[in-house]
Queue: 2 jobs
Job 1
Amino acid sequence: MSGQTGEKVIFAILGVPMLICILIFLWILSLLLTGIGTVRWELFTMSALRGGMLEMIVGTIYLLLGAAAVAGPIGVLAAIYLVEYAPSGGLTRIIDQAINNLAGVPSIVIGLFGYTFFCRHLGLGVSLAAGWLTLALMMLPIVIRGSEEALRMVPASFREAALALGATRWKAISSTILPAAAPGVVTSVILGMARVAGETAAILFTSCVLITRGLPKTPFEPVMALSYNLFVQIVALGAPAQRVFGITLVLFMIVTSLSLSAILLRSYYRLRQPWLRMKG
Amino acid sequence: MVNDAKVDIRNLNVWFGDNHVLKDVSFKIREKAVTAIMGPSGCGKTTLIRAINRMNELICGCRTSGEVYINGHNIYDGNINVYELRRKVGMVFQKPNPFPKSIYENVAFGPRIHKMANGREIDEIVERSLREAALWDEVKDRLQDSAFNLSGGQQQRLCIARALAVKPEIILMDEPCSALDPAATTKIEALIRRLSKRYTVIIVTHNLQQAARVSDFTAFLYEGRLIEYSDTKSVFENPRSELTKNYIAGKFG
């Protein structure tokens, strides 16, 4: 077999998974296009009490923003510690492994943990706040890993320049390294939100109910969420396909727009940050 | 040979892990003059100047013994404030490394972190530093532009201005022209000559001509040892060591 045919075979083999992805995507797209005509758009802004989806949409957004507000700062600080301060050695390796394990924990287990710890033990009950904390647990590994990568991409020469001017380590990090890494950090938080936007098991016991009277007024009240409602509609209620489709569509749009904005943000800053281009 | 020493290095040894990089280096550096440190790659030049602002210790596995006196104080004493030391001993790196900020903010960075000034006073420091670094006329109308829009030579002068802004006494330069074209190199060399009227400049170079052009004193380092140190003229015209003679003759490098 000549080198050239070998190259072609490899190319074909690598092309197959790509093709599968494209086919799946086209199938989802065709489902969307056929179903989109049946959706009644006024349902989006109508209260759930009257058969609409307003509280689910807003509830999902509340859950996502709150979880990001918890996981963002903790994740970024953890990443700063791991990249800038942690000594290379046993303990750091254990922390590293723990983060990997956290990413691999099934969401139903996270949900059960959230229920036992946040709802029962801390006494938050089934509430928005318990949902934030539980979803934050799922976001953390994504935020930490993404922020770590963003911090490592900042050239060492920025840090050196700041230190050589007499900056303390923290000053060098907060005034030069962190601003330079900020777009990557924000991207990782958005990706984390996209990851948990459709999450059901984690909020199943911790923060969701099927129907509420209006939106929660404090973080200690339960919420409605798209994913949870979708799950109940399909499993228990046997809701009309049209309603299920409406919820799915909104969920799909939220996840897609989060992922898309992460991609756009990243490519925008790649243009503006010359050191990222230099790294190729 | 130098009596009015600004920097007095005594029995300096530096190890990186098991690698003994600097071996018993001792010499005195004259105030308000340019001292060049030359030698082949890997001879410890960079390590030597980074011992003067204690930047070596940021690399893990680094060990230092011996003393470095600046204005009569040993900077390796326990009670030395390393941040204040690095303010007093500025550094310019091999590759221009401006921050991803505006030209103005690059120069203002040091004064801000040391809380040396605020508001209008910072404007004055920025202008004075940029003038001193011979960059003011080229950038005065675009101070808010990103520093990355400057040419390589301009970026390096910006880095010099940034170091000057915190009112240092000593400026360390680690092959400041190695990433620059000849025209930019000429400008920086002229600048170094001018700066030596007010600052003590220590420059690492493996460019012999550059050492001969800009420096008043030259030290020759080889495999971590100080082989020769004298005024530049005698080092180049009348080297005492056979090694120095061969290095200057271009027999190794």
Job 2
Amino acid sequence: MAITDAGVMYGLLAVGAGLATGLAGIGAGVGEQGIGAAVVGVVAEEPGFLGKGLFLMLLPETLIIFGLAVSLILMFAWSPFAALL
Amino acid sequence: MPVLRLPKFGKPVKYAYITGRVRAMKTKLIPNEMYARMLNMDIPEIARYLEETQYKEEIDALAKDYSGAELIEHATFANLAKTYRKLLEVSIDEPQFLILEYLRRWDIWNIKTILRGKFYGASDSEIMKYIVPAGELDMEFLEGLAKKDSINDVIAAFEGTDFAEALSKYDGKFLASVENALDKLYYFRMERAVGGTLSVGGGLLLKYVRREIDIRNLITLFRMNKAGIEASIVQENLIPGGKLGEELSRMAGQPYADFVRGLEGYPFWSAISDVATADLDGVSRIEARLKAYLIRYAWSLSNYHPLSILPVLGYIVTKETEVANIRKIVRGKEAGLPNELIEEQMVVA
């Protein structure tokens, strides 16, 4: 089936954009669970480690930014309604 | 038989908390350089230094009842038991199961201590000084054992447990056969409990424990071959289950020089190559080196498996060694031994 309807295309684009941010978020979460647990363990012994620990914990979070950037590009780079504006 | 079947996905995460925590706890251990300085202190100075470390709470609490070497001995053992119990309390699931299996060695230690105490007619308060309630048997139960009148009463208290068979080896004259049987029982139970699980963590624990058995057997071989004891008796004293079990068993009863030459090429050889000489006091130095090798082995393995039971094991053995070192220094000082002699006995990894 050939996709000819611009509305359907735009809908698929939105799904792609959602997947880009959503999967990046899940990945970051999987990465963070171990780091978070380890950081809590260390902070229980050394409260002074909290700052460094938080920084390490947030590192995987940066991956979401890539996902978000891809989503934004997908959503705003092309719009079937651009011609109408 | 407890069998752990945990999903593979997410398993290392179970270890993240406890490994993070023991790595932080490791930084609080006494650094190796301090031992040389402690050798030059007198006993009250050592007690004062220990007050600045993790032993503060115990030293403060016990200072009103004891002083000098006694205070340090009690405080170190109390701290050791507290630390090990803490490891059990802050871990869950598989790590907790494996830590408890490993810490059962303190049950063996406590039973041996009570048997020895009863054997030599020590009072129950005297015996309780050397009890480390870090395993499964709790303080109350052990106190009850220490209060029993004779060795046979102590042995009867274990009726129906795993220990009964090993304890039945007591012949009324010597404790050596019972102690040996208890050691074998400890490793047998661990193999039975952990070997039955399908977990990766359990496999790593056994990998370390097999090396530990080898090292313990090696120390036995060094002592007994040096004394020129018959092969069959030496073999009886070896603990089965080590990785090099067969090879080490073949070395039993060899003439000392041949035995030492035969060890070249084994992974632990580099740790002892310069002290494995023919002189008589060499054995204690070799023992210290082999124990240090075992600690290094645990930590180097844990570099390959950072989220596993191995860093916890590394911490457990390092902490045990630290307490043993402090006690050696304090005991040595009290007995007026020269520093060189104490230093030889100390395990510095």
